[in-house]
UniProtKB/TrEMBL annotation:
It comes from Pilimelia columellifera subsp. columellifera. InterPro entries: Aminotransferase_I/II_large, PyrdxlP-dep_Trfase, PyrdxlP-dep_Trfase_major, PyrdxlP-dep_Trfase_small. This is Pyridoxal phosphate-dependent aminotransferase. Residues 33-357 form the Aminotransferase class I/classII large domain. GO terms for molecular function: transaminase activity. CDD domains: AAT_like. Keywords: Aminotransferase, Transferase. Pfam families: Aminotran_1_2 (PF00155). Transmembrane segments: none annotated.
Length: 373
């Protein structure tokens, strides 16, 4: 097992996530209690929960859960779905299964750190930065220029964490076609799909390509990270078989209660996602007002999808000091730019991540406003 660097985000959260009074940088939408989720259950889901036995579950995942996941795609069957203990396990094992020393991978930045550091522990990796001066646009010409004969994988995350960027559909389809034409695997982290604003969701990579992998999870758009249920959809079943064998060395199987609750949530997905989109919309309006009030201190691009954004801080003290002083003095938690620094590209140093998917955002912004005044 290669030695991986310190996971900056998780280390930062270990210090502050459960002690700060106002979690204003949360990457997930508002969660719910088990009782609230069970109120959304159909008769079958309620019976499954009440009669559940606590034995081992199937490595691939509960068959009915895989069917519910497949129903969120257009061209994916239940047999094309492999469940994992969260998205992190799926991401890690996919990089291990798809990449070897001597290969080359391409990763967009900024990103969730393991999307960069796990492939870097295996092979040569090139970063392609989203353009902050152009609403975090993905430049396909730049990506095309860094491809090599030994490029095996392109890893993307849309809607993007931490910027909230979503490419237009034409660019997205061109990226999928480019990877297929070159025989490159597209690894598409789609964990915020369903929280787009004023635009339809992009077609999922696994629907557009038989070779592509689509990663998703109950944690982000659904707001149910405590379930620890994620999945990879891929129509190349030989790839899923390799991932299943890798999973035997990790979680072996998911927790049976979590899979039943995930099934209930997926069957109620329209209601859950509609609630969470409404929260995001309301909170974006609040942050818009906050940024307008402090126009000399902040600039931001509201997220096109997902529930996080990456504003600029223009204060003379710098974003690192601002975030540190804010949480220490008021309990309002933000993630500074250093958490999202990259070994592959030059990343902005004046940014911070803000979350817009939780209730009580107004309370946190009011505390922050009083601190600034």
């Amino acid at each position: 097992m290669p030695t991986l660097p310190d996971f900056r985000l998780e280390t930062f959260f270990s210090r502050w996530e459960f002690t700060a009074r106002h979690h204003l940088t949360a990457s997930d939408a508002q969660t719910m209690t088990v009782a609230e989720l069970l109120e959304l259950a159909d008769d079958d889901g309620r019976e499954r929960w009440q009669s559940l036995t606590l034995g081992y579950a199937q490595t691939y995942g509960l068959p009915e859960l895989r069917e519910a996941i497949a129903a969120t795609y257009r061209r994916v069957d239940a047999a094309d779905v492999l469940c994992f203990a969260g998205a992190q396990e799926g991401l890690h094992l996919a990089m291990q299964a798809l990449l070897e020393p001597g290969d080359h991978a391409v990763v967009i930045t900024p990103n969730y750190q393991s999307a960069e550091t796990v492939p870097l522990s295996i092979c040569d990796v090139t970063g392609v930065a989203l353009r902050p001066d152009d609403r975090w646009r993905l430049d396909l010409d730049e990506l095309r220029a860094v491809l090599r004969p030994n490029t095996r994988l392109v890893s993307v995350n849309f809607p993007n964490n931490p910027t909230g960027a979503v490419p237009d559909e034409a660019t997205w389809r061109e990226l999928v076609s480019l990877c297929d034409e070159r025989g490159i695997r597209l690894f598409s982290d789609e964990v915020y799909r369903g929280l787009e604003r004023d635009r339809p969701s992009l077609p999922q990579a696994a629907d557009l390509s038989e070779r592509a992998l689509s990663l998703n999870v109950m944690s982000k758009a659904y707001g149910l990270p405590g379930l620890r249920v994620g999945w990879i959809a891929c129509r190349d079943r030989a790839v899923l078989d390799r991932l299943e064998r890798a999973k035997h060395y990790w979680s072996i199987c998911n927790a049976a209660p979590s899979e039943v609750l995930a099934l209930i949530a997926l069957r109620a997905r329209d209601a859950i996602l509609a609630r969470n989109r409404a929260l995001v919309t309301d909170n974006i309006a609040l942050v818009d007002d906050f940024v307008a009030h402090f126009a000399g201190l902040f600039e931001w691009t509201p997220p096109e999808g997902g529930c996080v954004a990456f504003p600029r801080y223009l204060g003379e003290d710098g974003v690192e000091a601002m975030c540190a002083n804010l949480v220490e003095q008021t309990g309002v938690l933000l993630l500074p730019a250093s958490v999202f620094s990259s070994e592959l590209t030059t990343t902005p140093t004046d940014r911070f991540r803000i979350g817009v998917g939780r209730r009580d955002t107004d309370l946190a912004l009011n505390v922050w406003t009083r601190w600034l005044c």
